[in-house]
Structure formats: C-alpha cells, structure tokens
Amino acid sequence: MFGSLKERLESVKHDVTQGWKSISDKAKAVNQKIARKTTFITEEYTEGQDQCFNCDLEAGSEILEKYHKDWADIHEKSRASAEEAESADQTINSILKKCTNLRNTMTIFHGELDKLPEVIQNIQSATETIAAIGTQSEELEDLLMDLEEVCEKLDIERHKNSHRLKVVMFHQSKLDDLEKLKEDLQLQHQINSQKKEKLERQESIERQKVYEDAFIEQMNYYIQFGKTDEHVSHSSEPEESLADIKLEDYDLEKQLDDFLGPNLQDQGDPSIPSKAPDRPKHKRKSPKSKSKTKQTETKSQGKSEEIEEVSATSAKEESGKTSESTEVATQSKAEPDVVKPPEETTEGKEVEQSNTEGEEQKKD
Predict the structure, then answer these.
(1) What is the pTM of this model?
(2) Distance, CA of 168 to chain centre
(3) Where is the composition biased (Basic residues) (predicted)?
(4) By the 8 A CB rule, do 249 and 325 touch?
(5) Nearest of 229, 242, 224, 270 to residue 345 by alpha carbon
(6) Residue 318: which residues within 8 A CB-CB, separation 6 or more?
C-alpha cells in the first residue's frame, strides 16, 4: 500500500518536473522566435524601407502590442504555475516525509505485533510469578505473625517466671521476718508476762499481808469486844473492802484453818455471844444504852456471820480460780495481757453496805 503510494507520488513529481521543463523550454523557444521575428522585421524594414511606404504601421503596432500583452500574460501565468509547482513540490516532499515516517512506524508496529505473542506469554508468566509471590508473601506474613505471638508469649512467660521468683523471694523474706518478729514478740511477751507475774505476786503478797494484818486486828477486836465497827488500823494506806481482795493460787482453806484454827478450837463459834471472852464488868446503864448495846451486838453477830460466809465463798471461788488461772496462764502466752478491773460480788457489796451502816450509826 505505502509502496504504491510512494511510486505514485514519485511519478507525479517526475511528471510535474517534466511539464515544468517543457513549459520553460517552450517559453524560451517562443522568446527566441519573437526575437528572430523582430530582428527579421527590422532587417526587412531597413532593407525594404524604400519599398514599403505603402504598409499600415498602426496595425502592425497594434498586433505587436497584442502579442506583447499575450506574452506578458503567458509570462505571468508561467511564473504563477512555477510558484504553484514549487509549493506542490514542497507539499509532495512533506507528504513523502510523512509517508516515510508512517512506513517506518508501520514496520516497527508490524515487528512489535510479531513479538506480541511472546510479550503476552511473558506477561502471563509474570502474572503467575506475581501471584505465587503474593501467596508466599501472605504465608510469610502469617509465619511472621505466629513468630511475633510466640516471641510475645515467651517474653510473657519470662516476665512471669521472673515475677514469680521475685514473689517467692519476697514471700520467703517476709516469712523470715515474720518468724523473727514472732520470736521477738514471744520473748518480749514472756519477759513482760514474767515481770507482770512478779509484780502481781508482790502486790498480792503485800495486799495479803495488809489484809491479814487488818483481818487479824478486826478478829482480835471482834473477839475482845464483839464489834467490827471501829477502825483498828490507822495506816496512811487507802481503805479497801473485802470485795477488792484478789486471792492468788493458794490453798485458802488451809491458810484459814491455820490462821483461825487455834482461836476457834478454844473459843468455838465467834458468832455465839456466850462463847465470847469475858468482858469487863461495867456499871449499869440506862435502858436506852441497853437497847443500843443490844442493837450493836445483833449487828456484830450478823457481820461475823457475813464474814464467815464471805470466807467460805472466797475459798470456793479461789478453788475455781486456781483452775481458771491455769487456763489463763496458757492463754497469756498467745494473747497480750489485759488487766481487768476486779469484779464486785454481791457479798462484797453487802459487806460494804454493812460497813457504811455501822459508820452512820457511829456518827449518830
């Protein structure tokens, strides 16, 4: 197709150049003929000047003018045609260049079309390799995620083990500290309990001595006078009632028997006035004084009975306290010592009331 077009263009170009050459040759020949004719006419005119006086010169000039105009028109048309031929030649050259470029591009295109199946095969193989690489990359990503999870689990286990070791060490250290503290507290508790027991024993011994002295004085006074109203001991220590007496783990019955045995064996029951020791004889008193003495005797007898009851109940309570004291001694090792105030019994309250009544009667 392009080859035939090129041949046609070349033939057209050749024809145009040949036509242009023929036109230029014809124009040159016409010019030569005209020049020859003019020279010939001038020569004939000069030669036959004498013979051609009868010719029409104006008609000849008109003819010459006409031929001159025709020649000028032909010359202008030939010039325009030459210019058009040059422009046509330029357009033909440009078209030829374009055609050559198109031919080259088409040849290249045909070559590329010939290579197209190979390119398609290469593209298909490339797509297959890309798909395989994509699957492998996904598998690799999954494996990397699994590896990260495994690494995180290992780190967590490592931290757990380290923290467990720390916790175990801390727990062991705290247990050791607790054992040491327990031992120190036990030692301190034993020391404090021993000190407290010593102090309580000393206080109890001192109180027992004081109460024994007071009790002996009261009993002697009661044995002599049959009264317990007057205060025998005028010591600077504060007065205490029988309810405040705190008895320790001693055999009170034996002590009371040892303390009251010889006096009671000789004299019997002190509550009976007939067995009381002989009192000094006094002068006769008025009936009022007799009534007062009778009241005091009855009160003294009631108080002596109350004293005996208190001693018996205190002995029973002491026997119960001995069993309780053993339990308290075992509990005191585990629990801190708490000093409780002495509990007041009903009998102690009755004794206090009787003492207060005796004091009021003395005041009266």
Answers:
(1) 0.27
(2) 23
(3) 280-293
(4) yes
(5) 242
(6) 247, 249, 250, 252
